[in-house]
Amino acid sequence: MAVTTGTNVMNNVEAVRATLYEALKNDPRTLVMGEDVGPRGNVFLITKGFLDEFGPQRVLDTPLAEASIVGIAVGMAMEGLRPIAEIQFSDFIFPAFNQIVGEAAKTRYRSNGDFTCPLVIRTPYGGGVRGSLSHSISVEALFYHVPGLKIVAPSTPADMKGLLNAAIDDPDPVLYLEHKKTYRLIKGEVPDGHYTIPIGKAAVRKEGHQLTVVSYGLNVHQALEAANQLEADEALKVEVIDLRSIRPMDKQTILASVRKTRKLLIIHEDNKFGGIGAEISAMVAEEALFDLDAPIHRLCGPDVPPMGYALPLEEEFMISTERMKQRMREMVKF
What we know:
By secondary structure, the protein is of the alpha/beta class.
């Protein structure tokens, strides 16, 4: 980790842009590729101006063909480049499923270590922006079953930069998830210079002793708001863990917190059935069941297809801070 000289206030989208720019500037092996990343500069303007500065060999504006984007990037990575492939929205990642699961994730294993696949696949995910059925889904549970593939979901600008740097440096493929509602909503201090945050290390965002809450992405900020309100109004002490890395998962931090608070609530926007919360619940039940004073609870998106465009449908699907606060209160007083 390089020594930094200061910090700048950025939002999440600015942190991603700054990190990509520094990577392109500092490492000639690095390139970005995807739909509309060239003259348009990405639908969120993340790569605006990159084409003019780095040229079409480093900023590849691709056809609308996700299988080709990832498939070509896999070949580039195996030949020593550091491609950062963008899937414009996570809802469109499915044509590239075989390239990610069947090719990239298996490269090191099937070559007996002769080849690696230092590939980053960036994609915005999640709802709350009136994206409707085709621009709102969460895809993490569809990929976290796959050995050989790392998955990160940062929630703060500093983590956006540190985890993206770590993903670029990693010799194996990393699926890098960016919750689109946090892009301009969340701001914070971002250190200057190159630094990394280890993939697989969670962060305790708020300490407490009456309940452990585990979450990631947008829900972390809502959980913190709910926990802070409960502490101010009712003196309830809730511990909030930001998972940051979905695979590998920081079991040690989760288990240490659960053994302290003796209660666990898992919150994520993705559908409840078969989600990340199910894996965390099983892990805690296997390794810390007799440390618990209450059943493990999950507060998640409903088991329906992605949220509709109508605002009441979207709000019903998303998990509000008030719902989080109510469930936290119930569990503390259980």
